[in-house]
């Protein structure tokens, strides 16, 4: 049986999903919606799909089995609500929204409908993350350092606070998600941030947080978007006799035997899409970040960003 998929948003990340989805046997990308009709048409042509200027028409016209929501952070809410009302399984790109309220309300609607969901925290599918988790099982992390030192992506919404929620919510959220997997839940913290006259848009262009986890581990998370290119993006962990440095591409392990580099063997974007398609078809249950679970990461990222902007204490 063919699985018919629709996409809302036809930008960068939608293109990556289309390339994966069209390579999966038995999947048809049926329609793609974007208010920028030119983008919808170009991506739809690549996928052999129909193009729509409004997602409501996509949902009304196509008989879909699942919807991928690939819109900027500020555009979440209405489309997910409409999908929930239709009982349509939802893959939603991170972050869930610019704020907490929109996402928390959607999580309640999704739970009430018992809807199958996944969120694009793709680091969860890294085989190197799994290896890190196995290594830490024998020696739990005591210290975690997360860094996202990068340039500002050149899309119009990104450097606007009301467009993206800021870098902590939009990008560093991946670091918080990895830390939750490898270290546990955050119970307290403090954060600060700042803007320079040369910074892009109206967002904080430097932000740093000190967090305490329920295990007693402590962490420090910093991000900046002032650089000309990606510089340092990943999570370092210190455990008794064990050091780890996890990036999107590899894991560096330091232990009594010396240092070794383990390259990833899995394309995490492909893995997350294949896992959700399998779940929609009732053939698999490897969805690693359903909406409710993603909300826990989003809550943390919003709490850190809010503390950085207004006075320090991270309120969870
Ligand atoms: N998982 C990852 O690592 C990863 C990587 C890149 C982007 N993303 C996320 O994906 C989202 C989109 O990022 P992008 O880089 O593709 O941005 P983009 O600007 O390239 O694309 C977004 C598209 O959505 C469209 N859009 C805006 N409002 C819409 C609406 N109401 N309905 C339909 N389409 C609408 C825009 O016209 C644009 O074409 C962001 O939240 C971003 O964080 C995730």
Radius of gyration: 20 Å
Helical content band:
25-40%
Ligands present: nicotinamide-adenine-dinucleotide
Main β-sheet, spatial strand arrangement: 8-9-10-7-11-12-13-14
The fraction of residues assigned to DSSP E strands is 25-35%
Specify the structural class. alpha/beta
* Beta strands, count: 14
Mean pLDDT across the residues is 98
Distance between the termini: 44 Å
Q: What series of H and E elements makes up the topology? A: EHEHEHEHEHEHEHHHEEEEEEEHH
Q: Largest sheet at a glance?
A: 8 strands, mixed
Question: How do the strands and helices of this protein lay out in sequence?
Answer:
Layout: E1 3-8, H1 12-21, E2 27-33, H2 37-47, E3 50-52, H3 55-61, E4 66-69, H4 78-85, E5 90-92, H5 100-113, E6 117-119, H6 127-138, E7 143-149, H7 161-164, H8 167-170, H9 173-182, E8 186-194, E9 206-213, E10 218-224, E11 232-239, E12 242-246, E13 250-255, E14 258-263, H10 268-280, H11 291-309
Parallel strand pairs: 1-2, 1-4, 2-3, 4-5, 5-6, 7-10
Antiparallel strand pairs: 7-11, 8-9, 9-10, 11-12, 12-13, 13-14
Helix pairs in contact: 1-10, 4-5, 5-11, 9-11
The protein binds nicotinamide-adenine-dinucleotide (NAD).
GO molecular function: nucleotide binding
Domain GFO/IDH/MocA-like oxidoreductase: 149-233
InterPro entries: Gfo/Idh/MocA-like_OxRdtase_N, Gfo/Idh/MocA_Oxidoreductase, GFO_IDH_MocA-like_dom, NAD(P)-bd_dom_sf
């Amino acid at each position: 049986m063919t699985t018919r998929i629709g996409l809302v948003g036809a930008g960068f990340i939608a293109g990556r999903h289309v390339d994966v989805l069209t390579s999966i046997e038995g999947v048809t990308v049926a329609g793609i919606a974007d208010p920028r009709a030119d983008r919808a048409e170009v991506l739809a042509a690549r996928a052999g799909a129909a193009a729509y200027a409004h997602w409501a028409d996509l949902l009304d016209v196509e008989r879909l089995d699942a919807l991928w929501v690939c819109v900027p952070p500020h555009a979440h809410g209405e489309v997910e609500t409409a999908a929930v009302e239709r009982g349509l399984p939802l893959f939603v790109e991170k972050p869930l929204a610019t704020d907490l309220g929109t996402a928390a309300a959607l999580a309640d609607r999704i739970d009430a409908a018992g809807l199958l969901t996944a969120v694009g925290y793709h680091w969860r599918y890294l085989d190197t993350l799994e290896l890190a988790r196995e290594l830490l099982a024998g020696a739990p992390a005591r210290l975690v350092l997360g860094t996202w030192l990068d340039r500002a992506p050149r899309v119009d919404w990104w450097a606007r606070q009301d467009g993206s929620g800021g870098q902590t919510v939009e990008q560093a959220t991946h670091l918080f998600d990895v830390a939750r997997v490898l270290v546990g839940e955050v119970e307290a913290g403090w954060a600060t941030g700042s803007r320079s006259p040369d910074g892009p848009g109206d967002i904080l262009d430097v932000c740093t947080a000190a967090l305490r986890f329920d295990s007693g581990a402590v962490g420090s998370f910093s991000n900046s978007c002032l650089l000309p290119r990606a510089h340092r993006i990943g999570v370092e962990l210190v455990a008794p006799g064990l050091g780890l440095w996890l990036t999107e591409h590899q894991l560096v392990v330091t232990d009594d035997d010396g240092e070794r580099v383990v390259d990833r063997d899995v394309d995490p974007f492909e893995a997350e899409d294949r896992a959700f398609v399998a779940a929609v078809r009732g053939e698999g249950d490897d969805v690693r970040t359903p909406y409710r679970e993603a909300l826990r990461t989003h809550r943390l990222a919003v709490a850190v960003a809010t503390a950085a902007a207004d006075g320090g204490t991270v309120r969870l």
